[in-house]
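Table S2 (continued). Query chain:
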Amino acid sequence: VRVIPGRNGSSKPYGEAVATNYRSVKGWTQSKDSDYDYGVIILPTALGNTVGWMGLADLAFASLMGLNVNNSGYPGDKPYGSQWWNSNNILAVTGRRLYYRIDTMGGQSGSPVWRFKDGNRHIVGIHTTGGTFNGATRVNDDVFKNLVAWKGL
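Corresponding output:
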């Protein structure tokens, strides 16, 4: 897997990095349960030191319902290598999932779903599903702990 942050067509403003390893959880890798559909791509360099970092937030149900969230990724129905952004409110929340009507397309799976508050971005979900309602794996306590641990690898 090649990671090309900020790609815009053929422009690669921050270069690229090739993954050295990956991590996920058994609920996804063995059971294909969408409640556990998340993982990380481990890079040989700390690309975040160059492009910046997003925080993580394990928010309570009441804080998530109706929250305006953002998504940005590389949808397959747009020009190759072009990044697109959209936002909308969270419409439903479960212990492991978030649902919203943000316009997405195949190719955006794994992209962050984040809130913007006080000038900071905090990931609250990982986009996984398209349909009538698009969905994300919720950053709950378990997901939060795994992502933090994997960041240290």
